[in-house]
Design a protein that fits this description.
Largest sheet: 8 strands, mixed
CATH class of the largest domain: Alpha Beta
Helix content: 40-55%
Number of domains: 2
CATH architecture of the largest domain: 3-Layer(aba) Sandwich
Strand order of the largest sheet: 3-2-1-4-5-6-7-8
Number of helices: 12
CATH superfamily of the largest domain: NAD(P)-binding Rossmann-like Domain
Shape: globular
CATH topology of the largest domain: Rossmann fold
């Protein structure tokens, strides 16, 4: 059973980028007090501006009232000092880049000031939790909360249970996910979990098909959208997620699971090396001169 004496009221999100400000937004909309942290005041301000832009977009589309937007914004504050932010946390969610050393550093510093009952969570899409757990003094209160981009639209939330994670922590994580309006699934702590592993396998095969000249990027994506009813094709999805992110996941799964099945195709390495990281840079497998994807 969950610890009935503990209730999550304040959520601290470390990392104000695409995933971090999205997590902060949905937590604030669900009624939590939220603290958004990043390495500098400028990075925090940028994340808060993007969060507000998302909420303004919801108002413009009629999906959100002005009153609801304003209430959510009042529940969010920025704090560039990690130790100060962590001292306020009932739940601390790490959403920094997919680097194990960076994630361990974040957890180690945050644990210096976080209350004893704080639940620590990682938004990693592929790194095993066991590689981070020993950076925390109470690994039984450590769990994976893998959100999907864009956070305010995607309904799935993977709750990852490491060997050290207590059943009470999992129950609290599931209750948190449902309060956000997400549909949670529980997965074991294996590299890539369920969603990243399956999604990457499809994406890597699409890249190999492109390399082999089986079909164009647009036709490969169309095949999956019309033939299998996927909302996006695997190469379009890679552009949305970020080619650098997908490369990092592939390298992790190649190292942890199978070096042949998950070996990154050369086209992925080449595009990342060229700085074509997808939508966020304006070009990946497609080009985005005006926000609309066109075959590269």
């Amino acid at each position: 059973m969950a610890d009935e004496s503990f209730d999550i009221r304040r959520v601290v999100v470390v990392g104000a980028g695409t995933m971090g400000h999205g997590i902060a937004q949905v937590a604030a909309q669900a009624g939590f007090e939220v603290v958004l942290n990043d390495v500098s005041a400028a990075a925090v301000a940028k994340g808060l501006a993007q969060l507000r832009a998302n909420l303004d977009g919801g108002v413009a589309k009629g999906k959100l009232t002005v009153e609801a937007r304003d209430a959510a914004l009042q529940r969010v504050q920025g704090e560039p000092d990690l130790r100060s932010a962590a001292a306020l946390a009932d739940l601390l969610i790490e959403a920094v880049p997919e680097r194990l050393d960076l994630k361990r550093q974040v957890f180690g510093r945050a644990a210096e000031t976080a209350p004893a009952m704080t639940i620590f969570a990682t938004n990693t899409s592929s790194i095993p939790l066991r590689a981070m757990a020993d950076a925390l003094p109470r690994p039984e209160r450590f769990v994976g909360l893998h959100f999907f981009n864009p956070v305010h639209i995607q309904s799935l939330l993977e709750v990852v249970q490491a060997a050290q994670t207590s059943a009470a922590t999992v129950e609290l994580a599931l209750a948190f996910a449902r309060r956000l309006g997400k549909t949670p699934i529980v997965v074991r702590d294996v590299a890539g979990f369920a969603s990243s592993r399956l999604g990457l396998a499809l994406g890597l095969e699409a890249m190999r098909m492109l390399e082999e000249g089986v079909a164009s990027a647009a036709d490969i994506d169309t095949a999956m959208k019309l033939g299998y009813r996927h909302p996006m094709g695997p190469l379009e999805l890679t552009d949305l997620v970020g080619l650098d992110v997908r490369l990092g996941i592939a390298e992790t799964l190649a190292r942890e699971i199978d070096g042949v099945r998950f070996a990154p195709p050369q086209v992925l390495r080449d595009l990342v090396a060229a700085g074509r990281l997808g939508r966020k840079t304006g070009a990946g497998f497609y080009e985005y001169p005006d926000g609309a994807g066109r075959p590269a």
